[in-house]
Amino acid sequence: MDVSALDPRHLASLIAVAETGTFGRAAAELGYSQSAVSQQIAVLEQALGASVFDRPGGPRPVELTPMGEIVLTQARRVLAVLADAAAEITRFEGGETGPLAVGTFQSASTAILPGVVAAMRDAAPGVQIELQESDDDADLFAALCDGTLDVSFVVGEIPESLTAVPLMSDPFVAVAPAGSYPTGPIAVNDVVSGPLIGQPLDSSCQRLGESALRAVAPDLHYVFRTADNGAVAAMVRAGMGVAVLPLLCVDPDDNTIEVHTLQPELPARSVQIAWRTDRTQPPSAQRFVELSATVAAGVAAAMGQRSFDAAPAS
Amino acid sequence: MDVSALDPRHLASLIAVAETGTFGRAAAELGYSQSAVSQQIAVLEQALGASVFDRPGGPRPVELTPMGEIVLTQARRVLAVLADAAAEITRFEGGETGPLAVGTFQSASTAILPGVVAAMRDAAPGVQIELQESDDDADLFAALCDGTLDVSFVVGEIPESLTAVPLMSDPFVAVAPAGSYPTGPIAVNDVVSGPLIGQPLDSSCQRLGESALRAVAPDLHYVFRTADNGAVAAMVRAGMGVAVLPLLCVDPDDNTIEVHTLQPELPARSVQIAWRTDRTQPPSAQRFVELSATVAAGVAAAMGQRSFDAAPAS
DNA sequence: CCATAACGATTAGCAATTCTGATAGTTCCG
DNA sequence: CGGAACTATCAGAATTGCTAATCGTTATGG
Fold this sequence. Notes:
The structure is a homodimer. In chain A, 45% of the residues lie in helices and 22% in strands. The first copy, chain A, is α/β, with parallel strands linked by helices. In chain A, the strands form four sheets. The first copy, chain A, has a five-stranded mixed beta sheet, sandwiched between helices. Chain A has a five-stranded mixed beta sheet with strand order 10-9-11-7-12. A two-stranded antiparallel sheet of chain A has the order 1-2. In chain A, strand 9, helix 9 (204-216) and strand 10 form a beta-alpha-beta unit. In chain A, helix 1 (8-20) crosses helix 2, helix 1 crosses helix 4 (66-93) and helix 6 (113-123) packs across helix 11. The longest helix of chain A is centred in the N-terminal third of the chain and has 28 residues, at 66-93. The first copy, chain A, is rod-shaped, with a radius of gyration of 32 Å. The N and C termini of chain A lie far apart (77 Å). At the A-B interface, helix 4 of A face helix 4 of B. Chain A binds a DNA duplex through helix 3.
């Protein structure tokens, strides 16, 4: 017995014959001629080397042999699995299910992702989102290129092989202890001369901001670096120095620090969502991108309404 | 997506390509030409409405798309079930597995079946023997004819539609309390004149023996009937009367009763194993029949060595 | 007891499928 | 820039799979 002998169509015919009791009715049910069903069963029996039906002859219904019973059981199992596979594929095609590997970095994880994940859970509950976080774009790019990630939030320059859509612009701002600076923008020159708090250099947005600052003053005096944005804020609050960060990295509810625009402004970082151009995306990825754009637009709008350079809000 | 789109051969090709990385190697592995594999995958993709592989072009291996990953997973599942079905059928063909419905009657259950079941467990551990017991052959015949039973132990005349092989001959004997009769055969005339113990009339072997006795003496005086052979023996022991039973119904280890041959002998009942002629038998049934013949021969031999009509053995 | 009806097997022929072999097109590598 | 390693595509051949018509068998009803 070879698996190639078990043609699903033959098995379907077997089931139909077993259920209807005659080859003719089974044929009608399946849309075949009686002859076709007869031949299919004959082929099946030849492959098995045994009959699956006893034919009493005349107008009496055929009857399953013990072998037929066994094959019928297996046939039902096979067709059930086949139908389930088809259903699973259909669900995946509709973007309703399947794994979706998403790359992200800290401020996106904090400010944007939760909203997107919640929206995805509503729109496509079956999609299993697997997150991978790194503050270094290079990690995310590599994961995208080797297929570990389907889509990823990124900042800055996109490699050749990737496609990206911009979600929002995230300006660099200065973060200082509450009340330490007069209302209004702060001059970049003032900031770079003093002690600075920032993120480690393996963070892409830190490199972005730092290189912009270095264009003004080659020597920067970083007194503390941490990947934890809360720790950055705490150090600023403690008076150790000023931080220059993308606005998304700043907790808007923290009243102990204040945010100032920079004078002149640094080039804002662009938060984007990227995927490999030459790789076919899972259908759920498209939905994820759309929802990300919506959520990011909302975040950007909320950011625009916040008042900087002034007394902290409520 | 229709299940008919999921041809197992296409799925096998998908798996082979995914594992080897190229269409050509997959083709070699499957015994196809590269062209065939290419066309199979193309058909699959057309049916799915999506690519399953990204072809980077040039000498680099192809890569599964997310859709391809899903289909691959399902393909493995489908083929695994298919292979398992084929294996199950093969095992059944070899008589190694599957259900086997066996009919029996009390004395066969006691004297023959245990040995056969034990032998089957050794020879074909996967065969699930389902027993159905009735002392009336008619029940067993009916079950054989409607397919409830595959094979059955029976006694006496076989209907047209069944085939049977004789296993052993089982003589009728007289059972009396130990020491109540002189050594040697008992005349049937002596037996029929006294009170008798026997089985109910819905038992085929009782009908068989009783009609043989009635040929000698039309009026029989049955004082007790029970389907329980142990109860028959107990009543005999208690002196209520004599029993005329097939030898198989008598417990050989019971020293409180003694067995006498009858003079003249009644026609012995024939213990047979039967099945429906026009029904294809499960392969395990043949083995069961063979083992039954062996075991029954052993039982008959043991029976022949026992000494009747004399002082009870050990 | 014969006519009829219900059923599966068989056959011939046609259509669709499914291979093969050859070839063209693409990309990488030296 | 040429060769190597791929896949796609095409035409044609082989095979498969279906239909329609017909035959043989068995039960049923007059």
